[in-house]
Amino acid sequence: MTSENSLHFNVNLTSFQGPLDTLLDLAKSQKVNLENISITKLADQFYNFITKSKNLNLEMASEYLLMATWLVYLKSKLLLPESEEEEFKAFEVAEQLKLQLKKLELIRLLSDQMLKRKRLGKDVFMRGVKGQIRSIHNSEYSLTLFELFKAYSSIIMTRDFQRINIPKLPVLTTEEGINQIKSFFGKLSDWKNMNDLIPKNFISKKKFKKTGKAGVFSGSLELVKEGNIKIKQENLFDDIFIREN
Fold this sequence. Notes:
The protein is 49% helix and 7% strand. It contains 8 helices and 5 strands; from the N terminus they run ββααααααβααββ. The strands form 2 sheets. Strands 3-5-4 form a 3-stranded antiparallel beta sheet, covered by helices on one side. A hairpin with an 8-residue loop joins strand 4 (229-232) and strand 5 (241-244).
């Protein structure tokens, strides 16, 4: 990698080699099979890129992290069964994020242009002690009615600029799932359906039931690694059962 490309994150996977943004565009347009992409290898390469790059700034690292996150999200949507109740529109949010990245690039370009201008005290220096010279400033402004309206509308548009706020839904974390399962210890001498362990406040609403089940499931995996419980599933997509070890 040359010095000019030292700040560009190029991935090297089995089915693709090249820049991360190109991989993301190809994945969204379904020109690259996401099933053949190893997210683990992508995460390892991203970690090495962040830790070894000395001149990498935080904004560029966050953009690469955002692209890698979208690849993980798209692959998870491909692996999990689709649901008719899904309210999260991936394509719409992706377009909004793309617009925000374009605005960020424009701000970065303008700030770079401003820094290249001559600055007072560095490139341009003020005159020393004033003599007997008086400074006379007479400013005259000549504007048409159209120019006044144009300036006023620009100020209003800038003031009313709207931000995109994605609401954060309540989720059941892995730690909360572990505590939920532990609260049933002593009652799990026989196999028990995992759906019966989901908290009532998550199972009462359909849109929260998935995150409740995911939290209990991830918590059960941690407890299995510790040797506290056992889990079983007869067939693919069947109910999962839990029992104390």
